Amino acid sequence: MKGNSLPMKGREFLRKKRTPMQLEQILQYSFSGLSTGAIYALIGIGFSIIFNATGIINFAQGEFVMLGGMLTLFFLELLQLPLWAAVPCAVAVSALAGILFERLAIRPLRQPTPINLVIITIAGSILIRGLAMLLWGKDTHAIPPFSGDEPISIAGATILPQHIWILAITVLIIAVNKFFFYHTISGKAMRACSYNRRAASLVGIDVRRMVLLSFIISSVLGSLAGIIVAPLTMTAYDVGIMLGLKGFCAAIIGGMSSGMATVVGGLILGVLESLGAGLISSGYKDAIAFIILLLILFIRPQGLFGKAESERV
Amino acid sequence: MRRELLKFLFFAVLILAAPLVFSGGYLMNVLVFVGINTMLAVALNLLLGYAGQISLGHAGFFGIGAYLSGILTATYGWNAWLAMPLAALVVGTLAGLIGFPILKLKGHYLAMATLGLGIIIYIVFNETVDLTGGPSGLSGIPNLSIGSLVFDNDFKNYYLIWTFGLAVVLFCVNLAGSRVGRALRAVNDSEVAARVMGVNARILKVQVFALSAVISSLAGSLYAHTMTFVSPASFGFNFSVELLTMVVIGGLGSVYGSFLGAALLTLLPELLRGAQDYDIIIYGGLLMSMVMFMPGGLVRGLPELFRRVARRREGAGNA
Amino acid sequence: MKKLIAVCGVVCVGLLSATAVFAAGTIKIGGLFAVTGPAAFLGEPERNTAKMVVEEINKAGGVKGHKLELVVYDTSGDATKAVQLATKLIRDDHVAAIIGPSTTGESMAVIPVAEREKVPLISCSAGIKITEPVKKWVFKTAQNDTLAVGKIYEYLQRHKQSKVAILTVSDGFGASGREQLKAQARKYGITIVSDDTYGPKDTDMTAQLTRIRGSRAQAIICWGTNPGPAVIAKNARQLGLKMPLFMSHGVSSKKFIELAGDAAEGIKLPSGKVIVADLLPASDRQKGALTAFVKDYQKHYRAEGDHFGGHAWDAVMLLKNAIERGGDTRATIRDQLERTRGFAGIGGTFSYSAQDHAGLNNDAFVLVEVKKRHWSIVK
């Protein structure tokens, strides 16, 4: 990275005067960052929903993202379904996988200590990944974009129709999410669980049903994220690991909220990565994102938007 | 304390006698890695099992130890016995410094921060090509030697690694039984209560974090000199997770449990080799059922299993 | 007359008993391939091919009457495992020689074991460090990255393009490519005006490409393996980049065209000859081997053979020839391997010597271009 022939390095960049060309570049970085960030946000919300309902960090969340993409491909290619039918089928099967996971792995746990839960979700993710590898092989697969791939130019930066799909679906999901948690009985019950599970069960909320529900919602969100991003990034049995980690990151920045804070967390992460790769160093872009994450945690240990909690003794 | 000493002596004899049974073959080689992984698991268990602090970045410390030893000896021609303590010192200082801000975090925030730390270290290994050789790795690391005795085969390496391994085990057994060990467990139960009792929880946590990192670095140095080659892929997120799994499967807060966990997870892939592509599924499934049916880890689950089997035998005998 | 019959009889009996003695023992060959994990795209075709070739050889009567037996282990791309399994092959399975590993990192890790135990190793990975400097027991079949880089630079030089941007993946394959791209540039009068990397699991490379667009680069050279380069091709199309895009031989299979779709159109890359086997003139020395490989692979696995599998094909055939010329002890196999001259395989025409254990020259690669979703040779 030290070739002096490089045109632009971080510090030089800041010293130089901005030309329209560079503004265009920054715009392009931001667009790219926002669309990857939207995906991180969806995955992050999945993490938060399960965490809030159960206190579990579900390390298998990334595998639902993988399942979304791979199942869509399965329904498209092998069963020859049209896209509008393949997507709901894929989401439904992912939700089923979520239910099975909760019933077979989480519920029967005799000593659900946090650390045992971490291990069981990690084991679950290994198992799901292994099954996907056996079923669909190790190859990477392409999925056709939802509506063509003619680039669209906006103020000198270009995006694809799929990016619009990603942003639109993300906004839609956030809206539905908000509606669910604030205007439906089940949603309100789930929020009650996240504040205090014992109190919630005392007022007659079936906590175990809420836990199951949280797994269903998260697997649906995860698989949707996997589906809308697959036409851009392609999909394979092992795409879930990295995306899952990034989603976890987004949720942490957002203070494990299942609402806007995590969305902002995801977008921040996506844009930071993209700007880091474009302006400073592409090799260190993930490191840059993680260093900023560490700094955020050091300064605000409850996440960027969280309130400080008092500790019970 | 006498009982602990007897237990350790029994363990040590078992370990030192093992080559009599397994000598020569390939299993010896695997047992060398069981030794390295035991050191790592015991180190992580100090942090996780005794002090109750999770770390998803321990592969990073292991890696820094391995790379520092490797670079100092292979590139700069240092004596390996000098490079090793220096690497440990650097890692210990680093962990001590980063420990203060990082251990202020709790629960999943701590998990995330240590995970991030591990990933940053991994990226540095990959990107500093001139120093580490980048993704293609660093080769030509010399074997350790004492005078004319060069540790260049599995048999010699076994005793070399396990000398360190047993020392680490003995040290940790002692530590657990000491005042420090009790203070650690107090921090684990309730930090605030421990503080009230006059334990400086913050310093103590950082000290354990640094100690754990130093042991990991030592294991890393030994790994580098046995393998004579290191590459970043061995020190990624996956390995951090594997270490965590060893500790939990073995049994939190038990030194010998960590050995059991390390031995099981190192030997398991060998046992599953016959299953070919199905091994990953069996591996995942096995981990799941272990957590389900032996939630306290092998060290508590196995005796219980024996007892149950024995009782059933008795029952059958009476009938 | 009687005498003649008697002599014939003796000779026959002698021959029969000789073959019987030979047939009594099988020759064990070890295989170390990354069948799972991130390098599975290398390891899987390699394992499949090695199995296939051994099967075909045994069907045809084996080597000097010996059957070959292949013992394959999966390293999952992990250097530690590769070393353990190499030890297992040598100590427990007593193999005569080892084929693999698949990646440069693993090969570098296994080399000390092979050297110490004095076992011939034919690596299937490309890193130049594997055979430079020459190690007594180590050979390789994958073409050096130097040759691939040379093919691209030659083309650029002919077309008077001297400023390039490089975009390499941050794993062993990309790092080795990046090193060679930088090292060879001056020789061809080329300046690298932008040097970027991307992660093997990255999903969006528009940031790097935007930066390249802002540079003075006349061409982009991308060094990686699927799926990264396909993402890059798509991203480049999205950004409307006009400069020509070059890929490495890491993506020279139909899979790349399938993944990148329309975005693959016009992309050029250096490749082993296997993907254009049917387009080669009959005079090409490798044509026979190439068509046989493609046909066999299609028959066994109903899939297209790629040049990664070809590395294993070459390795097994080189071993077979060495055993045929000499014997099946480790030392004679090594010596005979080193005496290989003009063996036309999949990766190229191999001639090893005491100074050269890579054995290929620059006719191992051709420059191909994607035209209408098919490969064509660039003249």
Based on the model shown, name its key terms.
heterotrimer; A: 313 residues; mainly alpha; ABC transporter involved in vitamin B12 uptake, BtuC; two-stranded antiparallel sheet; 12 helices; disordered N terminus; B: 319 residues; 14 helices; 4 strands; globular
Q: Calculate Rg of chain C over CA atoms.
A: 22 Å
The helix/strand series of chain B, from N terminus to C terminus, equals HHHHHHEEEHHHHEHHHH
Helix- and strand-based class of chain C?
A: alpha/beta
Low-confidence stretches of chain B: none
CATH superfamily of the largest domain in chain C: Response regulator
Number of helices of chain C: 12
Tell me roughly what share of residues is in helical segments of chain C: 40-55%
* Count of DSSP-assigned helices of chain B: 14
Average pLDDT of chain B works out at 90
- The oligomerization state is heterotrimer
User: Which of globular, elongated, flat, extended, rod-shaped describes the shape of chain C?
Assistant: globular
Show the largest interface.
Answer: A-B, 47 and 47 residues
GO molecular function, one term (chain B): branched-chain amino acid transmembrane transporter activity
InterPro entries (chain B): ABC_transp_permease, LivM-like
Transmembrane segments (chain B): 33-52, 59-78, 84-102, 109-125, 158-176, 203-223, 243-268, 280-299
Subcellular location (chain B): Cell membrane
Question: Can you walk through the features of this model?
Answer:
Chain C: This is ABC transporter substrate-binding protein. Chain C: Pfam families: Peripla_BP_6. Chain C: Belongs to the leucine-binding protein family. Chain A is an all-alpha fold. Chain A has 12 helices and 2 strands. Chain A has a single domain (28-148, 155-295), classed as ABC transporter involved in vitamin B12 uptake, BtuC (Orthogonal Bundle). Chain A has a two-stranded antiparallel sheet with strand order 1-2. In chain A, a hairpin with a 2-residue loop joins β1 (152-154) and β2. Chain B has one domain (2-236). In chain B, β2 (145-146) and β3 (149-150) form a beta hairpin. In chain B, 54% of the residues are buried. Chain C has 2 domains: 24-143 and 287-361, Rossmann fold, CATH 3.40.50.2300; 146-271, 3-Layer(aba) Sandwich (Rossmann fold), CATH 3.40.50.2300. Chain C starts with a helix and ends with a strand. The model of chain C is unreliable at 10-23 (pLDDT under 50). Chains in contact: A-B, A-C, B-C. The interface between A and B is large, with 47 and 47 residues.
